From TrEMBL:
SUPFAM superfamilies: P-loop containing nucleoside triphosphate hydrolases (SSF52540). ATP binds at residues 10-17. This is Guanylate kinase. Its EC number is 2.7.4.8. GO terms for molecular function: ATP binding; GMP kinase activity. Keywords: ATP-binding, Cytoplasm, Kinase, Nucleotide-binding, Transferase. GO terms for cellular component: cytosol. The keyword Cytoplasm applies. Essential for recycling GMP and indirectly, cGMP. The gene is gmk.
Amino acid sequence: MEKKIIIITAPSGAGKTTIVRKLLASMPVLAFSVSAATRSAREGEVNGRDYYFMSVDEFHAKIDAHAFAEYEMVYAGKYYGTLKSELERIWEERRIPMVDIDVKGALSIKEKYHQQALTIFIEPPSIDALRARLSERGTETQASLEERLGKARYELSFSHEFDHIVVNDELERAYEEVKKLVTDFLNIK
Ligand SMILES: Nc1ncnc2c1ncn2[C@@H]1O[C@H](COP(=O)(O)OP(=O)(O)OP(=O)(O)O)[C@@H](O)[C@H]1O
Ligand SMILES: Nc1nc2c(ncn2[C@@H]2O[C@H](COP(=O)(O)O)[C@@H](O)[C@H]2O)c(=O)[nH]1
């Protein structure tokens, strides 16, 4: 079986995780690729389901062991990375990994797997909408919100590096558009 991979990226707050969760719920062939991260777990997050939470020393050991397909220091000095073992585990189950990562990481993983990858950039309707969504999500301090918005302006300039751009203005419409791209890519009727 060909080892396909679906890469979804966007600036923080654009809604990629929301769309990915809806896809995972409706398409059992897809499996969430759980990343490693050195940030602390938020309320309700579960180790091994949302992230593999680890210390910086553990993360460095994995870098030294070449365990990552890609990794980045994404925000506030925190590392995030896609584990090769996670992709292999999903392929062994004859399923397709859904990778939900930042734009820089998505560009490097696309480079690595470009022949087998579908890459989708989720675009927010505006920076004001991003600000409102991140504020409402209630996960950020004022400083981390500004950091994410600052990075978003830069990341938006890379949207055309990806196979498709989907504007997440109305969630249901954006979800249906992404689902059609995924089903076409996987040749599912
Ligand atoms: N179309 C939409 N309209 C309004 N709110 C939305 C829409 N899509 C998602 N949201 C909300 O915006 C917030 C950010 O969404 P989400 O966490 O999915 O973003 P993200 O791109 O995965 O961010 P991060 O990269 O920080 O994980 C969530 O509270 C979500 O419920
Ligand atoms: N380059 C990578 N980026 C990743 C990975 N896993 C998640 N992310 C991205 O980090 C930010 C912040 O996430 P949050 O959970 O702290 O809000 C977000 O854009 C994620 O998509 C990864 O393995 N590599």
